[in-house]
Amino acid sequence: MRAPAPTVKPGWFFRNDRQYLALSEVPAALAVSSAEISQAVEAGQIKSERISGCKAVALAELFRYIENRGNQK
Predict the structure, then answer these.
(1) How many other C-beta atoms are found inside a 10 Å radius of the C-beta of residue 12?
(2) Number of domains in the chain
(3) What is this structure's pTM?
(4) 6: in domain
């Protein structure tokens, strides 16, 4: 009997035991505008990486951004 394959949603990446989310999926995941995410990337508040040709953000990086964003309000 086969074990079911793990369910991975489109836009999720795994590399070196780290989990990443496609940059295009970040606004929906955080419930913010894409303009805010673009500004954060340009300002260096969110660091993106290329994975298989797709810009992606490490989940740890997103958590750090959320924490910093909460502290600013």
Answers:
(1) 14
(2) 1
(3) 0.77
(4) no
